[in-house]
Amino acid sequence: MSALLEVKDVVTAYGKIEALKGVSLEVQQGSITCLLGPNGAGKTTLMMSTAGILRPRSGSIQFAGAEIAGAAPHAIVARGIALVPENRLVFPGMTVTENLRAGAYQRADKAEIEAHIERMFARFAPLKARATQLGGTLSGGEQQMLSVARALMSRPRLLLMDEPSLGLAPLIVDEIFRIIAELNKDGTTIFLVEQNAHMALKVANHFYLIEQGKVTFSGDPGSLAEDEVIRRAYLGSARA
Amino acid sequence: MLVDLIQNTLDGLTAGAAYALLAIGFTLIFGVLRRINLSYGPAIMLGCYAATWFHVQFQVGLLVLAALTLAATVLAGAYVERLCFAPHRDRSAIAAMVASFAIWMQLEELATLVLPNHLYAFPALYEGGPLSLGPFTLRAEALVMFAVTVLACLALQRLLYRSRFGLSVRAVIDQPVAARLVGINLPWVFVRVFAVASALGAVAGYLIVASAGQVTPMLGMWSTLKGMLAMMLGGLGSLPGAIVGGLALGLIEAHSQWFFGPQVRDLTAYFLLFALLALRPSGLWTTPRHG
Ligand SMILES: Nc1ncnc2c1ncn2[C@@H]1O[C@H](COP(=O)(O)OP(=O)(O)OP(=O)(O)O)[C@@H](O)[C@H]1O
Ligand SMILES: [Mg+2]
Predict the structure, then answer these.
(1) d(CA B210, CA B130)
(2) How much is the ipTM here?
(3) Is residue A167 in a domain?
(4) What is the CATH number of the domain that holds A166?
(5) Which residue range is the domain that position A51 belongs to?
């Protein structure tokens, strides 16, 4: 395996406060890599920095061998990265179909886009019934599916997911994780932020623990350290 | 009495059509950038002045004048975007608004530098007198104004709901972060939205000065005021609201002039805006967005 995404010494700050204090990690091609960590650790900041919404102060982010740190989000999408953002951020005033079409914004193959939307409806059955409904009127679970489907419409090589199970009922969480495993089997590399460490470690090939803006642990699921990592992901040991 | 009422309604709707166009341009910019562009009117004024200058120099025809107004206004609009809004994109909304005020002064200075008289004649659209429909009269310009506004609204509707550019504009209005995440180039959308808004403003400006038969530097302030008033009456950032607000403003002005006299005409509109902001701050027309 080779690294599809290589993050090195990334520092990202909000004003004077550094939320990432030199983060380094790798996401292997074809893997599901999971980023665990307590609230406020910097997980969303790393996702937003990778997607180009936030500009790192220093450090490097390499995707498929090219430097993308500080590039504009549209340029990063063009390279093959899509983010399912925290809190879903569906387009509330646009229909489900329009949301999906927006996801394919950079693609020019019109006929293939419509076929792709149909495939999304087949995969995410609840969305099909709501095709003409506005995004803002969907339930939380439906919005999460829409957010995932919208990201997939750009046909990313790397899918970033920021807490896709947040606030969802257990049955829907199972569904989301089933979809994650399926997408990965179809060849999409996945970099997943999760609070739900138990579920995440079931699907992941590799995980990192981030605490207070720094990677403090990394390993493979099933290792002896798992319980400790889960405890720290929930509670944040270094806080005391 | 009834005849007057209907006549006033006709006049009000005609003026309202122009206000609606101005308000749509204003609203587009506000919806996409979340910024108030005070230089919107002055850019239109400069466009009309550029056309007037050509007319004074070369006696060009009506269509050429219209095209010149359009081109010059779009250029002036792009200039305003580059100078006031591009540098302050991630920063304070107040800074951008103040910058747009400074550019307003600059554009007015420029206009009076090139054409120093207070007033210039602008070729009329139609030389004949008003048309009469039974007891009512209607100027030919009014019909043109109304027809063009309807066409412009339909064209905009098509652009927003049937094109890729329209999809990107609606996405940015709806959820700007998500719009960037799906790969929409934000700065490029901003520039093009400014161009479209300026083009709509230019159409309104051209029709207004061609109906009036004259142009003064006051057109800038007048357009900004009317456009902003109509936009706020209809609800900030709502496109149907801009149309409703524009027509409402025209009707309010026409009827209050008849009831209370010309001095009170503008006052009524301002008073109503005040009352509206106090009682229904989201505007006459509210869309269930950002829920
Ligand atoms: N817009 C902002 N302005 C200032 N500080 C911010 C901003 N966004 C995040 N922060 C701070 O940066 C740090 C990291 O936040 P981040 O959102 O990346 O955490 P997270 O790991 O995603 O947390 P959670 O699990 O709660 O989503 C936190 O201390 C947070 O308070
Ligand atoms: Mg987060």
Answers:
(1) 15
(2) 0.94
(3) yes
(4) 3.40.50.300
(5) 3-87+156-235
Residue A191 alpha carbon to ligand 1 centre in Å:
18
pLDDT tens column, B192-239: 999 999 999 999 999 999 988 899 999 999 999 999 999 988 888 788
What residue spans define the domains of chain B?
A: 2-279
> What residue owns the CA closest to ligand 1's atom 28?
A40
What is the rounded average pLDDT for all residues in chain B? 88
Kindly give, in sequence order, each residue whose CB lies less than 8 Å from that of residue A212, ignoring residues fewer than 6 positions away: A21, A40, A41, A42, A236, A238, A239
Query: Which residue, by CA, sits nearest to atom 25 of ligand 1?
Result: A39
Q: Tell me, yes or no, if B182 comes closer than 8 A to chain A by beta carbon.
A: yes
Contact A77 B289 (CB under 8 A): no
Put simply, the answer to whether B167 touches A105 (Cβ < 8 Å) is yes
Note whether residue A113 is domain-resident. no
pLDDT < 70: residue spans in chain A: 1, 224-225, 235-240
Q: Which two tokens stand for residue B76?
A: 């002036």
CATH assignment, B2-279: 1.10.3470
| Cα A43 to averaged position of ligand 2 atoms, centre (Å) | 5
Helix residue ranges per DSSP H, B123-279: 140-162, 164-174, 176-181, 186-212, 218-234, 239-260, 262-279
pLDDT tens, position by position, A39-98: 999 999 999 999 999 999 999 999 999 999 999 999 999 999 999 999 999 999 999 999
Any domain includes A66: yes
- A15 touches B at CB < 8 Å: no
Instruction: Report the domain count for chain A.
Output: 1
What integer pLDDT is reported at residue A239 of this predicted model? 43
What type of residue is B85? Answer: F
